[in-house]
Design a protein that fits this description.
- The protein has one domain: Orthogonal Bundle (434 Repressor (Amino-terminal Domain)), CATH 1.10.260.40.
- It is mostly helical.
- It contains five helices and no strands.
Length: 84
């Protein structure tokens, strides 16, 4: 497992929670990217890494797809509720 080289950014609220939810599901970034592609969300590995590092903005379409794939609520990803 690689460690993050850069400090977390401030361009989104969900990056840390996406990474946490993905890891709790035992999912690799590559698997998450494949599921995003199936849902019509075109993102590459660099984009996902930047999203998780909070150095990339997130669209509403991406937010909904990530919540669905990771089986969490949009409110959880936004930090408005705790994980159940």
């Amino acid at each position: 497992m690689r460690l993050r080289k850069q400090a977390l950014g401030s361009r989104n609220l969900i990056g840390v929670r996406v990474e946490d939810a993905r890891k709790k599901k035992g999912m690799k970034q590559k698997e998450l990217l494949a599921q995003l592609q199936v849902r019509g969300v075109d993102m590459n590995a660099s984009g996902l890494s930047k999203l998780e590092g909070q150095i990339r903005y997130v669209t509403d379409i991406e937010l909904v797809a990530l919540a669905d794939i990771l089986e969490v609520s949009v409110d959880y990803l936004l930090g408005r509720e705790s994980r159940k």
